[in-house]
Design brief:
With about 150 residues, the protein is α/β, with parallel strands linked by helices. Helix content is about 35%, strand content about 15%. The protein has a 5-stranded mixed sheet with strand order 2-1-3-4-5. A hairpin with a 5-residue loop joins strand 1 and strand 2. It is globular, with a radius of gyration of 14 Å. The model has no long low-confidence stretch (mean pLDDT about 90).
Length: about 150
C-alpha cells in the first residue's frame, strides 16, 4: 500500500494525480507518469482524445467516447517511446485495464504502481484482474496504492 512506497514513488503518484485533472472526461480523471530506469520522469499522460480530435461535450458524454478515448497509460507510454523500456509507470484514478496492461508490457516497462482494483461490483474489476494476470505472466512487478495521495 501507499505507506510502503518510497518518498519518490509518492512524489510521482502526486504528479500522476495532478496530471489526472487535465482530463476533460467528466466521469474519469486518470493520470499516468512514466519514469526511465534511473527514475527520471520521461512522460505524462491523461485520458483523452488523440491530438487534433476535438474533445467537445457531446463526444465526452456520447456513446463513442469509449471507442475513441486513449487511456492515461496509453498516452504516457506513447509519449515515452523506447525510453520507457525497463522503467516504471505510476497510475492514479482508475485501476489499469487489460488493454493498458498489454501496452505497458509491450513497451518493456518492468514495474507498475497502480490503484487497488475496485470491488467486484465495478465494471472495471474484471478488466483490472485481467491486467494483474498479464503482469504476473509477463514478470512485471506491480504495487498497489490507495487513491489518497498527498
Amino acid at each position: 500500500m501507499l505507506d510502503k512506497l518510497s518518498k519518490w514513488d509518492n512524489r510521482r503518484l502526486e504528479l500522476a494525480q495532478f496530471v489526472s485533472e487535465w482530463s476533460k472526461d467528466p466521469k474519469a480523471k486518470v493520470g499516468a507518469v512514466v519514469t526511465d530506469t534511473l527514475g527520471r520522469v520521461i512522460a505524462l499522460g491523461y485520458n483523452g482524445f488523440a491530438v487534433g480530435i476535438e474533445d467537445n461535450e457531446d463526444r465526452l458524454n456520447g456513446d463513442d467516447k469509449l471507442k475513441m478515448i486513449l487511456h492515461a497509460e496509453e498516452n504516457a507510454v506513447l509519449i515515452a517511446g523506447e525510453r520507457a523500456r525497463g522503467g516504471t509507470i505510476y497510475v492514479f484514478g482508475k485501476p489499469t485495464c487489460a488493454k493498458c496492461a498489454a501496452v505497458i508490457i509491450q513497451a518493456g516497462i518492468k514495474r507498475a504502481v497502480i490503484p487497488v482494483p475496485e470491488d467486484d461490483s465495478s465494471k472495471w474489476f474484471n478488466l483490472g484482474m485481467l491486467a494483474l494476470d498479464q503482469f504476473n505472466e509477463a514478470d512485471v512487478d506491480f504495487e498497489f496504492h490507495q487513491d489518497a495521495v498527498g
